[in-house]
Every structure is written in C-alpha cells, then in structure tokens.
Amino acid sequence: QVQLVESGGGLVQAGGSLRLSCAASGRTFSSYGMGWFRQGPGEDRDFVACISWSGDRIYYADSVKGRFTISRDNAKNTVYLQMNSLNPEDTAVYHCAADYWGHGSSWWGDYDYWGQGTQVTVSS
To answer: Any bridge partners for residue 47, and if so which?
Structure first.
C-alpha cells in the first residue's frame, strides 16, 4: 500500500514557476514508477510526465516539454515536478500516481495509487 500526498500548488502569474512535491509512504517507493497527471474543470485527466523507478526513463506530454521537469529522490520518498514558464492553460488540479511495475506510463490506467491532488492556478 502506498499513500501519496501532493503539495506545492498555488496561484501564480503567467510566466512564473512552481515546484510540486509528492511525498509517498511505504518502504517500497523506490520500486514504483511515478507519474503526474492534471485535470482541469470539466476535463479529462491528462498525462503530464512520468519517471521510472530508477529515473532512467522520463517522458513528458508535448504540451509541457521544455517547461516542466520531473525528478525523484528515493531516499526522501518524494517525486517532484518543476514547472516553469507557466501559462493559464496549465491551470488544473495536479495529481501524482504510483505504478507498481516501476515503469511509469502516460496512461492513467497503469497506475495503482493516486494522491488527492494540489490546485495550480495560473493567472494571465
């Protein structure tokens, strides 16, 4: 069982930056692939980024490539999402998720555990 708690969201002006954190409970965090997804009002849950258990495989959605960076610190049981050059289209609730098989994936159905999410609002 893994419990995930996101933090770091907030209100930021366009062009600004935020760093999201996702703290995981459990001793097996280092074996899980991790992903970030986001969901705007009335929209589907969209893939943002993922990272394999070892950190050697990282993928991004085209919409955030070059602006967002996913990373993990297995010693701290935490995965991060550094978000730069934010724009209003990035406004959403951001969720982290854990993939038991360790790969990370762009499909939400591959994940076994989810956090409650943290709100990110970007004003124009």
So the answer is: 37
Share of the chain above pLDDT 70, in %: 100
pLDDT digits (tens, 9 = 90+) for 54-68: 999 999 999 999 999
Q: Report residue 35: phi and psi, to 5°.
A: -140, 160
Cβ atoms of 107 and 47 within 8 Å: the answer is yes
Q: What is the pLDDT of residues 78-116, one digit of tens each?
A: 999 999 999 999 999 999 999 999 899 999 999 999 999
User: Is 121 in contact with 10 (CB distance < 8 Å)?
Assistant: yes
Instruction: Let me know: does 7 contact 118? Beta carbons within 8 Å.
Output: yes
d(Cα 48, Cα 63) in Å, to the nearest integer? 8
Residue pointed to by tokens 């996913």:
70
What's the CA gap between 88 and 37, in Å, rounded?
Answer: 16
Number of residues that make up the chain: 124
Q: Do the Cβ atoms of 58 and 36 come closer than 8 Å?
A: no
